[in-house]
Amino acid sequence: MPRRAPRVKPGRSQNGLPSGNIRSMSNTFDPRGPRPTELTYNSYLMVPELLELQRPQSNPVHNDEMLFIIIHQAYELWFKLVLQELKNALECMKQKRVLRAQHFVKRTVEIFKVLVQQIHILETMTPQEFLGFRDKLMPASGFQSLQFREVEFLCGLKEERYLTFFKDRPEYLERLKARLAGEDLASVFLEMLHAMDYDVPQGAKALLLKGDEAAKGKVLDALRSIYEEPETELPLYLLAELLMDLDEGLMLWREHHVRVVERVIGFKHGTGGSSGVSYLKTTVDKKAFPWLWEVRTHLIPRP
Ligand code: HEM
């Protein structure tokens, strides 16, 4: 049987690249390349500027310092997006738009899966190689990651003591103080339950932090009713589970980070002045939505 010639789009060669024949191409293709004023991949993404932003401190440059810089920069870029999407989720919850809130939390959960995995790239660096440039990093430290702290605060994990790491950067300090005083996912989720006629008191998160047992009982009862019959409140149940995924993502990031840190520097002190691994281990159990974790304990089998 004669074989049919493959169909090729106008202006394309068989390998899919522009064929170079001007007349057969769409009006927008110019074989001389884009005019300097036209938007290109590189100008849109500012690739030349981006590739200028890796400035190793070691001299001569230590090969692995480039890895160290790029991985941290990648984290900071993702943190930027996480902050944007968690803010979106928060606004949706304030408007009781449960499904839309799910959409944004889901995206951050997927990002966190990447963040948890990518820390392990650093394990391709031997402890000795890290020592080759570690002293050049002093006193810079992960403690100074403003965006990481903002992610924590926006979730509801607010600790004033971390402000101190930004006292020399007034604009960072202001930003973090605003997050500390502002709304967070944990409080807004509980407010949303109140607004949806669950018997959860207004200002529930503040009451829980004060150790108000009555408020805690009401929050757990409300959550139990959602968790015991997920089908009747499916959107709320799914949002609660996504918040669990987010909390778990943060916790897993901490666990993977501390394992990598121990593997690379053992029990040396951190460049930020902490006890290093011993300090990091005290953080791995932090929970932004502790009541979502606790409600499991109170569930009983359905008849
Ligand atoms: C070889 C790799 C790494 C080592 C040895 C390391 C070491 C440490 C140590 C010792 C601390 C405790 C604070 C201090 O005293 O400095 C810390 C905190 C931190 N590191 Fe790393 N780190 C590494 C990679 C990363 C990466 C890739 C990130 C990505 C963002 C990161 C983000 C952070 C953050 C946000 C904190 C604060 C954690 C908290 O207070 O809960 N670290 N790191």
Describe the structure.
The chain has 13 helices and no strands. Helix 3 runs parallel beside helix 6 (146-155) and helix 3 (63-94) runs parallel beside helix 8. The chain is mainly α. The protein has helices spanning 41-45, 47-50, 63-94, 98-118, 127-134, 146-155, 170-181, 185-195, 204-209, 213-228, 234-265, 277-281, 290-298. The structure holds protoporphyrin IX containing FE. The site of protoporphyrin IX containing FE (HEM) has 25 residues, from helix 3, helix 11 and helix 12. Protoporphyrin IX containing FE (HEM) is lined by residues 71-72, 75, 119, 122, 130, 141-143, 145, 148, 257, 260-261, 264-265, 270-274, 276, 279-280, 283.
Q: What's the CATH first level of the domain at 67-148 and 182-298? A: Mainly Alpha
Major β-sheet, in short?
none
Low-confidence stretches: 20-24
The Rg value, from CA coordinates, equals: 25 Å
Percent helix among the residues? 55-70%
Helices, by number, come to 13
Structural class estimated from helices and strands: mainly alpha
Number of strands: 0
Order of helices and strands: HHHHHHHHHHHHH
Sheet-strand content, in percent, reads under 5%
Terminal Cα separation, in Å?
68 Å
Q: For this entry, what is the oligomeric state of its chains?
A: single chain
Hetero groups: protoporphyrin IX containing FE
Please, what is the average pLDDT?
92
**Which architecture of the domain at 67-148 and 182-298 would the CATH scheme give at its second level?**
Up-down Bundle
What name is given to the CATH topology of the domain at 67-148 and 182-298? Methane Monooxygenase Hydroxylase, Chain G, domain 1
Q: What is the overall silhouette?
A: globular
